[in-house]
Design goal:
- The structure holds 2 protein chains of 2 kinds.
- Chain A is of the alpha+beta class.
- Chain A has a single domain, classed as Arc Repressor Mutant, subunit A, CATH 1.10.10.10.
- Chain A is built from 4 helices and 3 strands; from the N terminus they run αβααββα.
- Chain A has helices at about 5-15, 20-30, 35-50, 80-90; strands at about 20, 55-65, 70-80.
- In chain A, strands 1-3-2 form a 3-stranded antiparallel β-sheet.
- In chain A, helix 1 packs across helix 2 (about 20-30).
- Chain A is globular, with a radius of gyration of 13 Å.
- The model of chain A has no long low-confidence stretch (mean pLDDT about 95).
- Chain B has one domain (about 40-355).
- The radius of gyration of chain B is 22 Å and the shape is globular.
- Chain B is built from 16 helices and no strands.
- The longest helix of chain B is centred in the first third of the chain and has 40 residues, at about 15-55.
- Classes of the chains: A alpha+beta, B mainly alpha.
- Chains A and B meet through helix 1, helix 3, strand 2, strand 3 and helix 4 of A and helix 1, helix 2, helix 4, helix 5 and helix 9 of B.
Chain lengths: ~90, ~375
Amino acid sequence: MKIHQKGYLLITLSRSGSLWDYELIKRALHEYGESGAFREKTLNIALDELAAAGLVSRIEEKLEADGNHSRLRFRYKISDFGVSRMVDTGLLLP
Amino acid sequence: MANISTAARFQGAVSPDTSLKSALHRHYLRNQRWGFMWALWTAILWGAWYVPGTALWSEFPYVNIAADQQSLRLAATAVMTWIHAITVFLFLLLWNAVLGKVKDYGRTMVRFKTISKWYALASLCGGPLAIFGSYMAMGFIGPVFAAISSLFYPVIGAVIARLWYKEKISRRAAIGMCIIIFGGMIIYGPGLFGEMHASNPNAWLGYLGGIMSAIGWGTEGAVAARAMDVSDPDVGIHCRFSFEILFWGILILPALALFTELPIAELIMNTITHSKAMLWILLAAACHAYCYTAFYKSFSLIGVGRGEAIGNLYAVFALIFIAAFTLQFPQWYFVLGLIFTVLGSFVMFSESAESVANLRDVDAPGAH
């Protein structure tokens, strides 16, 4: 059985060092065989929740043109607190 | 894909730094608004829940249980809570099916040792401890005392969240929380004088129940948030109710049926075969399912302390819904309490969005 999605986001980030949200989301969508704006938004919300809880840190941000609008993008990395929470919850070996 | 310089050209004279800063502010503000909106929905649906929740006691088989038959009343409460929890589970299944999260529910449930055990503990705190405690407070002292003691649960939740995983409680959030609790006490307080009797020898059981309900609900938020750090809130609430069904259905009700003379099986059969009782349970479960969903979703965006404090506005909505459906209008001091609770909510909401964007006091190198 695959790992739950928030767990996947944390594990992928911890293995990659740091990633932009769109890179991470692209990997997650591929992993779970999902697509579409709704699924993308769901994963973005999950990243917002992880950042609010202090498990991941936003280390860079930028605006990207998307049609007539600009979209805010974040580069994430796991925080020290995130590593310790991953160890607590079995997502990372101590 | 274009970077910030391209984006800045769309916005004419606005400098890239300014437009990035304002985009960041809008992002944090949106998250803060969603967090408070979910917490407000919690309060509205919690308030609405009191109408079918109270009406259920007027239907067979519950209407025949006299107020002084304490053990039978508690058994009936356990039965209705179990059937209610099963119905809530079905509503949550529908919710997660629409959101495409049913598979994630399975993936989270199976990780019991490391993740879903926290939801199991949260269900023990919110179910048997808080609800049972609340009914003890109602039964041995009175409903007003039960309502007042529950108002203190955000303080317990905020303190545990602060000590356990360093949730930031700003001065403004703490002041807002106190004003909301004060408003709730104004609403229910005057009714308390009619309930307190010095001659009541079992009053200590009521006080114990009041403490249990405040600790139960306060602890539930903090414990659930521990698991929600690494899992989805929609999935989390589904796990929490799955465990509540198991606790009542596998442990508590069979134990009551085996070791007491209480008619547990008869109560279950009489409830599920009686359409009016089931209709009220269905309505109560619809309110409760989405009330709890909103509750858990608010925790991950604005924190346990703020989510629970805004959730306390249920005190206001419960009286509004009861007045709307029964035409029993609250006393004049309700308006005063309403003013305080709304004021407290605005004090909390007036915190900067950036402050709410980071809920924990943790060292995050490189974090903004």
